[in-house]
């Protein structure tokens, strides 16, 4: 059973891990974050976070995963407990189940949009019908994608609940596909899918990027600017924003999300390795592949194509899903005959990237139920489906309360940072950096530079702590004022809650009715706040639920997982 599960081949493992990391984060979240945070200004904090935090955590998680797997644990409660002496570590590991499930609940929803869109594009859906007047064709071209978006999400202004039958059906199909693949197991399901999906994804991306970068403002009337302006915007280093912690926070958050670190997912995949299999080289390869698919491919698609028609400023103004799901398919219509295929390639690419990642969110929960409760794989997959449905229904039906963004913030950003801090402490300070290094080096096919020993032990935890603090506190004179007064030798100014981040979100500062709003509008906002409070209680409830499961699992067996020392 689960204990004997292994990856079938090295290639399969590498592709499955790449599939885990490469996801919507690369093609949707990265361009949006880069555009909102000043393009080249974003890239320096991004690269620094990659080196001092992303890569070390990637190695830590691979090493921990292989270690725990050797003792029969494939999810973070068991893995953490096998490395730390205190019994509390298994509860810290629960966070790794919570984030995976929480992220899956909204990630799968977007995944289902991608599936709907790619099928619809392939059937020629966004192309104006033959023989209509140019005006009608233009009206169709600009309206079709947004009409489709509203049709599958059911979204409407000022409506709290949005239900769309076609959208929900596609969502259910998508969940079903994931559960089916997971029920086939690690080698028989995940690995097989990754071997097909990853090469296809690359092919789709390269074709689309080449076509997009060939957009020529001289040769075509609709093309107003060179697509390279979009690429240069991200690639041209800009040092002016280095002192802006908001940019640092966004960059570090993106590194977590895109590498799938801080959530128990990498540990799980690595736990299906043998004790002597390499983790140093393959771990680095995962990070490197993801970065290639983000900084090169991810920045060569959405932004350059959109910029060539709309210009940089217009693109910066439209952040988020609108650009990818409404604007881009409209722009593809400029490609005439190639338009349906372009739409299919774009949304197909998103779907393939998404499914190989959503499988990676489901597997830790499956593994937990299989290892600690001896559930069969099929039973575990049914249980997983139940949990996902419970969480996903509010996400898919309540659009206006920002449940979606709220989940993304608490489980997709904040929890990752907390979890990462805990694991780096566990690895470098509790398990011990010397033993940790020895584990990392066992079977290693890459000689990791010794500098990473010190980075992992000192720089990474301090970096994460600073990020956490900056998300909660800010200088009362603002960060500009802070650096100015430090520079002028006036001492450290006083601090206050950073109202626009953690505390502000906690107190619903971003969900207040506008000043002088009518009573109806005020009630509407009150509803939104209530719903949000409710979904946070649901997340907290889930944490408690898993904690109870963890407590039961270990009391029933009446043994702690084998202690430290393999
Ligand atoms: N890294 C994935 C992405 O970039 C997201 C992910 C999160 C994957 C959690 C697995 C687990 O989209
Ligand atoms: Na990614």
TrEMBL record:
It holds the Pfam family SNF. The keyword Lipid metabolism does not apply. The chain crosses the membrane at residues 7-28, 40-60, 88-109, 160-180, 192-210, 246-272, 292-312, 338-361, 382-403, 409-431, 451-473, 537-554. It is a multi-pass membrane protein. SUPFAM superfamilies: SNF-like. Keywords: Membrane, Transmembrane, Transmembrane helix, Transport. GO terms for cellular component: membrane. InterPro entries: Na/ntran_symport, SNS_sf. The keyword Transmembrane applies. Its main location: membrane. It is found in: Membrane. This is Sodium:calcium symporter.
């Amino acid at each position: 059973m689960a204990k004997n599960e292994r990856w079938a081949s090295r290639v399969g493992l590498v592709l499955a891990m790449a599939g885990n990391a490469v996801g919507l984060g690369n093609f949707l979240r990265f361009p949006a974050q880069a555009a909102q945070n000043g393009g080249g200004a974003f890239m320096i904090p991004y690269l620094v976070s990659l080196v001092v935090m992303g890569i070390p955590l990637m190695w830590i998680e691979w090493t921990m995963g292989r270690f725990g797997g050797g003792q029969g644990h494939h999810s973070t409660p068991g893995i953490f407990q096998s490395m730390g002496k205190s019994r509390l570590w298994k509860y810290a590991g629960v966070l790794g189940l919570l984030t995976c499930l929480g992220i899956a609940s909204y990630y799968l929803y977007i995944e289902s949009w991608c599936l709907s869109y790619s099928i619809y594009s392939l059937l020629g859906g966004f192309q104006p019908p033959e023989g209509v007047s140019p005006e009608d064709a233009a009206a169709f071209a600009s309206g079709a994608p947004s009409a489709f978006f509203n049709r599958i999400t059911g979204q409407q202004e000022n409506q709290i609940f949005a239900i769309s039958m076609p959208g929900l059906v596609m969502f259910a199909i998508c969940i079903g596909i994931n559960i089916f693949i997971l029920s086939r197991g690690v080698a028989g399901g995940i690995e097989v899918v990754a071997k097909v999906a990853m090469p296809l994804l690359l092919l789709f991306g390269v074709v689309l990027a080449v076509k997009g970068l060939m957009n020529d403002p001289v040769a075509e009337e609709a093309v107003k600017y060179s697509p390279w302006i979009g690429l240069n915007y991200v690639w041209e280093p800009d040092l002016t924003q280095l002192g802006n912690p908001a940019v640092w926070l966004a960059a570090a958050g993106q590194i977590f999300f895109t590498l799938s670190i801080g959530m128990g997912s990498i540990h799980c995949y690595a736990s299906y390795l043998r004790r002597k299999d390499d983790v140093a080289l393959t771990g680095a390869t995962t990070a490197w592949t993801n970065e290639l698919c983000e900084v090169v491919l991810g920045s060569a698609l959405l932004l350059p194509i959109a910029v060539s028609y709309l210009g940089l400023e217009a693109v910066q103004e439209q952040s988020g899903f609108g650009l990818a799901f409404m604007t881009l398919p409209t722009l593809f219509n400029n490609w005439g005959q190639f338009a349906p295929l372009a739409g299919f390639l774009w949304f197909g690419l998103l779907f393939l990237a998404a499914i190989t990642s959503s499988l990676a969110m489901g597997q830790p929960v499956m593994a937990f139920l299989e290892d600690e409760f001896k559930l069969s794989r099929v039973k575990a997959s049914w249980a997983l489906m139940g949990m996902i449905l419970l969480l996903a229904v509010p996400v898919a039906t309540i659009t206006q309360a920002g449940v979606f963004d709220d989940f993304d913030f608490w489980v997709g950003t904040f929890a990752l940072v907390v979890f990462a801090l805990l694991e780096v402490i566990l690895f470098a300070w509790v398990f011990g950096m010397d033993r940790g290094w020895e584990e990392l080096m066992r079977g290693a096919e890459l000689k990791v530079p010794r500098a990473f020993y010190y980075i992992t032990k000192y720089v990474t935890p301090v970096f994460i702590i600073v990020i956490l603090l900056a998300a909660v506190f800010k200088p009362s004179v603002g960060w500009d004022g802070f650096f100015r007064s430090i520079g002028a030798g006036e001492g450290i100014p006083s601090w206050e809650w950073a109202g626009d981040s953690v505390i502000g979100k906690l107190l619903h500062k971003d969900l207040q009715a506008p000043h002088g709003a009518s009573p109806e509008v005020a009630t509407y906002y009150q509803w939104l706040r209530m719903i949000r409070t409710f979904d946070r209680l649901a997340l907290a409830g889930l944490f408690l639920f898993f904690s109870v499961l963890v407590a039961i699992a270990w009391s029933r067996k009446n043994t702690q997982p084998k202690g430290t020392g393999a």
